[in-house]
Amino acid sequence: MHPLYQHMATSVFERMSLAAAQHGAVNLGQGFPDFGWPVEILDAAARALKDGSNQYAPSRGLPALREAIAGHYAQHQGLKLGVDQVCVTSGATEALAAAILATVEPGDEVILFTPAYDAYAPLIRRAGGIVREVPLQPPGWRIERAALQAALSPRTKAIVLNNPHNPTGRLFDREELSLVAEAAVSRGLTVISDEVWEHVLLDGQDFTPISAFAGMAERTLKCGSAGKIFSLTGWKIGWLISSPELATLAARAHQFLTFASAPNLQAAVAYGLAEGDGWLRPMRESFSRARDRMTAGLEASGYAVLPSASTYFLCVDLAASGIAIDAEAFADQAVERAGVAVVPLSPFAEHDPPRHMIRLCFAKRDETIDVGVEAMAKAR
Ligand code: PMP
Ligand code: GLN
């Protein structure tokens, strides 16, 4: 048995979802919408299941999907991609694994901004890498030059960037992205850029991929996910975007992780991307409204809610809400006694994790939000 797995906890998302099911609680923990997907894409998947191929897809993905992904990023982010720069994966989770396996050698240091999505550190460590945490400080959660510089060393190989950022809901600004780009270009680092939330932008904001910065296209491995774009998290169709050279290396890792993903779902995602972006605006507007509804409800019962500009998560500062127990204890108590599952931020950093912060998912129908907010009122 590899020692890494002997003391590893089960992912906080799985733990909280199991606890929600066990206690019949409303699940505002694991991030998944309970509305908002375009129904046409479900019909496209059903058609592809019945009339299309049910045998192995090409390892790098269906040509139609790779073309649709390249077209989508040309339209939305001005990226000029050939299909040889796109590799379809089983969710962004696999894209991350392939990117890390293709990049990190034993002894390499990899920078993570914490709190960080929980998949990065274990993957880096299993590849033999050493995690260097750069803590982002609440309530601003900004990338600061001094903190980044302090974490860089001659052994730094890569930076994992997650923008927009889960769990904080931050959309990093140009100044912060420039700091990352400058460090990467001046030191010859690879940037693994987890951009799965690139379309979940609130309040009419714009997204700039890090690969658009000077010198970054050839050193960035971008990870994307149809699960987030179409609010269909269970589909697990993701992708890696990179230079042709890096994409080939990552595709070699991918071929021995899953080899390929379900052809029918790939066909449906290709259909969805090629259909245009009619779903985008309504999705953003409904998530912005949902955020406002949840924020107002939580504030009415005395919770200190931090601003959220992207993703469908918001954070609550328990200490600032006058709650003395830590986030883990609060989350256990809330799901067991008050009937609401939330996610504590403590598992998202190893050094000095935020111990008084919880995350809630607001991508829910009004009824779900109202039940959740009522339960939160009882949880304090
Ligand atoms: N990265 C981040 C930051 C995420 O939030 C998620 C899912 N919530 C993933 C990766 C995984 O995406 P997928 O479900 O496509 O594997
Ligand atoms: N990414 C989702 C979240 O942040 C959960 C993904 C998972 O359960 N592994 O809640």
TrEMBL record:
Cofactor(s) needed for function: pyridoxal 5'-phosphate
Enzyme Commission number, as recorded: 2.6.1.1
Cellular component, GO annotation: cytoplasm
Coiled-coil segments on the chain, per record: none
Positions of the Aminotransferase class I/classII large domain: 26-375
Keyword set, alphabetical order: Aminotransferase, Pyridoxal phosphate, Transferase
Superkingdom: Bacteria
Catalysed transformations (reactions): L-aspartate + 2-oxoglutarate = oxaloacetate + L-glutamate
GO terms for MF: kynurenine-oxoglutarate transaminase activity; L-aspartate:2-oxoglutarate aminotransferase activity; pyridoxal phosphate binding
Gene3D superfamilies assigned to the protein according to its UniProt record, in alphabetical order: Aspartate Aminotransferase, domain 1, Type I PLP-dependent aspartate aminotransferase-like (Major domain)
Record InterPro entries: Aminotransferase_I/II_large, Kynurenine-oxoglutarate_AT, PyrdxlP-dep_Trfase, PyrdxlP-dep_Trfase_major, PyrdxlP-dep_Trfase_small
Keyword Transferase applies: yes
UniProt family annotation: Belongs to the class-I pyridoxal-phosphate-dependent aminotransferase family.
Subunit structure: Homodimer.
PANTHER family: FI04487P (PTHR43807)
Protein name in the entry: aspartate transaminase
